[in-house]
Structure formats: C-alpha cells, structure tokens
Amino acid sequence: MAAPLLLRGLPLLRLRMHLQQRHRVPAAGLLGLVQRPLCSSPCEKTPSEEATKTVELLRVKEPTKLFDRIDDPDDHRKWRDKEEEILRDIEPVILLTKEILHSDRYMDGERLRAEDEKVVVERLLAYHPHSEDKIGCGLDSIMVDRHPQFRHSRCLFVVRTDGGWIDFSYQKCIRQYIRNKYPPYASRFIREHYKRSSG
C-alpha cells in the first residue's frame, strides 16, 4: 500500500529537482518552493528573488525546544507526593458517587439517604462552580435519575424546595474542590487526571 504512494511522489520530486537546477534555487528551496503562475508579468519577482524570500521565511532565528528544562528531581518528587495526597483526599467521595450512580443501591428517581446526601452536599455540591444557581430557592434533597437529554446516563439532581429539580456534574464539583484546596497543583492534576475538561 505504501509503495504506490511513494511512486506517485516521484514525478513531483523530479519536477522540483528540475526547477531547482533550472532556476538555481538554493538547496533549502526544496522545502518550500513558492507557487508561481504559468504566465508571469514583468512586475513580478524573479524566481531567484522568490526562492531567497522562501529561504528567509524558512529560517528559524532560534531553534525551538520541546522541553525548556528537565524537571528537578525534587520538584518531581514533590509533585508525586502532592498528587498522592490529592488522590487520597478525593477518592472516598468519588467512590461513593460512582457507587450511588452505577450500582443498584438507588433506583431512578430515588432520593439519597441522609448520610449519602450529607456527603454529596458538603463534599460535592458546595464546590460546584454554579452551586447557588443549582440550589436556587432552596435545597430539599438530592436525587439520582436519568439525564433528560442522555437517557443512557444517570446523574445527580438537586431537588429544590419549590419542587423543581436540576442536574449537576460531580466532576465539575471535584475539579473546583481541587482548584480551591490545591491551587498550585490544580491545573496539572486536572490536566493529567481529567482528559476531557468541561469546566
């Protein structure tokens, strides 16, 4: 499969080499020949001027580095220690939330028991970036149900005192908790542990 693709490129390579010899383009000109119309007017630049300009555009003043510095081993050790601390801190609430959502502990539309609700309200909902909007007129309870748009997924809902209810993302709550409690490490932790960041 790759061989026919390589063979297709040979005529283009020959054409570029022919143009290079014909117009005496510097060797770097092969990297980016400027497209020229077939008919040139006298006011346009000559091929050698175009090639010179192309070479100037291709030059890099300073080579860019993928990594500016190698992390200090002490910094790496500090990061790993802090990462373990954050994981130990958030793991119990994440495990509880996943058990609430993904086990048969609660049926769809069922309100959480008092001990589970206390943990969810204090360790999750309190840290949601828009918790005041979610609670609205007041918090009556927390409920588990199917998401209205994504019927295959279950999520947590705030049941308000006026009878209305609205879903909230426990992952947004966790991310905000990490940002509040571990500010210097939050962005790196979230980037490494939460691939898709929705807020």
Automatic annotation (TrEMBL):
Listed EC numbers? 2.7.7.6
Q: Which GO terms are recorded in the biological process aspect for this UniProt protein?
A: chloroplast organization; chloroplast rRNA processing
A GO molecular-function annotation: DNA-directed RNA polymerase activity
What protein name does the entry list?
Answer: DNA-directed RNA polymerase
Q: Which UniProt keywords apply?
A: Chloroplast, DNA-directed RNA polymerase, Nucleotidyltransferase, Plastid, Transcription, Transferase, Transit peptide
Species name: Opuntia streptacantha
Q: Which Gene3D superfamilies match?
A: 3.10.450.40
Localization terms from the record: Plastid, Chloroplast
Q: Which GO terms describe its cellular component?
A: chloroplast; DNA-directed RNA polymerase complex
Record-linked PANTHER family: DCL PROTEIN (DUF3223) (PTHR33415:SF4), PROTEIN EMBRYO DEFECTIVE 514 (PTHR33415)
Where does the source fall among the domains of life? Eukaryota
